[in-house]
Amino acid sequence: MFQHVFAEMNHMLGEIMKHYPTAQETQKHQLMQKWNMLKTMSDGIIDEWLSFEEKMGQFRQHVEVPSTMFSNETSPEMELDAFVRGQGYFRLMMFHQAVQQFSQVIRQYPDSLLARMYLAMAHLHLEETDAAQNHFQMILPLTNSQKLKAMIYNALGCIAVKHGNVEKAQEFFTLALQCDPTLPDPLINLKVCQQNRGQLQYGSQLISLM
To answer: What is the percent of the chain where pLDDT is above 90?
Structure first.
């Protein structure tokens, strides 16, 4: 649902950026009106989403919500405002803000695999591969979840591709499939490597599974 909305907003913003530099004054005024509309929509979506996340966090404080990947981990950090807001920013693909929030959580709860996983994925989306890799390598030996291991191996494979090491990347993607054959991302990424075209996939399962 949100993907279609953001796709249309991104398309409109792209058109504004494309035409504004060479537009006449009348057209520039029209383009700025469209930009202001997008800005209002963006601010409204962010405010409403963060409000929703805060309510979700309040509910989570009173109800035990099961987690498929972190069932062995107590999660007091999920009650922190920084965690709730970080999760909201992550889902809105505002990764700079997500990094800021989850970094606060990690300073208070350095052993939180959940917060560290979000932080690592946010760094990866920002192309901050060294920071992402460090967090992934810290999580890997500490988790018993095969699904989480698969997601980490897949992410490490994507980092290897970004570093130009396609052979190592394919090893990571294969390990990811061995850990969890149902995870779609590593199979897609193997094809990207083999065909040398397409877009790497990572983190798509994180939101739905937490």
So the answer is: 36
Whether the Cβ atoms of residue 206 and residue 151 lie closer than 8 Å to each other: yes
CA atoms within 13 A on the CB side of 34: 18
User: What does DSSP assign to residue 27?
Assistant: H
Mean pLDDT of 10-17: 85
* Token pair 């405010």: residue: 47
Query: pLDDT, tens digit, for every residue of 42-100?
Result: 777 777 766 776 676 666 555 544 444 554 444 788 889 999 999 888 888 899 999 99
d(CA 15, CA 64): 46
CA atoms within a 13 Å half-sphere pointing along the CA-CB vector of 129: 12
- Return the beta strands (E) in 159-209 as ranges: none
What pLDDT is recorded for position 99?
A: 96
Distances in Å between the alpha carbon of 114 and those of 15, 148, 209? 38, 10, 11
Residue 177 amino acid letter: L
Asked whether the beta carbons of 68 and 209 are under 8 A apart, the reply is yes
